[in-house]
Amino acid sequence: MSQNGSIERHLYAQGVSSRDDCYDFRLMRTLYHMTLDPMSRMIRIVLAEKGLPARLVELRPWEENSEFASINPAGDIPVLIDEPPTGGELSISPTTAIIEYLEEVYPSTKLHPSTAAGRAEVRRLVMWIAVKFEREVIDLTMRERVDKKLMRLGPADYDRLNQGAKALDWHLDYFDWLLEQRQWLAGEVYSFADAAAAASLSSLDYISAIDWQKCSALHEWYARMKSRPSMRPLLKDRVDGVTPPNHFDDPDF
After folding, report:
1. Which of 115, 127, 199, 212 would bridge with 42, disulfide CB 3.0–4.6 Å?
2. Distance between CA atoms of 248 and 253, rounded to whole angstroms?
3. Does residue 25 fall inside a structural domain?
4. What per-residue confidence (pLDDT) applies to 188?
5. Both 86 and 170 in a single domain?
6. How far apart are CA 217 and CA 177, in angstroms?
7. Domain ranges, residue 126
8. How far, in Å, CA of 239 to CA of 18, rounded?
9. What is the C-alpha separation between 48 and 172, in angstroms, rounded?
10. Of 181, 187, 74, which is closest to residue 125 (Cα–Cα)?
11. Could you give the CA distance from residue 73 to residue 75 in angstroms, rounded to a whole number?
């Protein structure tokens, strides 16, 4: 544990147990993340979809931490530390750089479509979720209700919560409209766009922010997402002082 901030270290992997004494954790890739941070959750989903074990290091970006500052001077999360097949060690951020790196270096499970048009649509939706949805919804809802509580900054600002809730309804309508026409968010194959959307919506679902009855196509898609092995560890997440709804980890919600 670093003296420069509370860092909780734990393992997230497929086929690797914390009791596996023969596994050298010094050689594992590491993800600096925060439990309910949507883009951190997206990278966890992507790593699982690609079958890449990673050690998770829980970190609250607002806490001063010189160790993390040396890894990412920008001070934000997620950050992936990886030892690529070509050797050496890389520190990779932000989210869009991480997913493009993982797709290029670990291509056996592809999360980009095979066509240029398909990849363009995936990138459009990932940026929509990482930038527009984050600014208009996540910052005004999840961060107001959860991060502010963790930072002990007092009660949530209800004007900001109301503004975020209105924006959320509009975004959910848009996602629902897309899924009425497509099997997956960006088209006919599962992609980074699905991982990005599921990560963000799972954070909001944790705080009971979504009325799933208003968006049937999105509801059906999210049920499929919750049934994927890559999502199951995220649905077990819990944050002290914030209790999720009973349906949070139920695929048949």
Report:
1. 199
2. 8
3. yes
4. 96
5. no
6. 8
7. 116-235
8. 21
9. 26
10. 187
11. 5
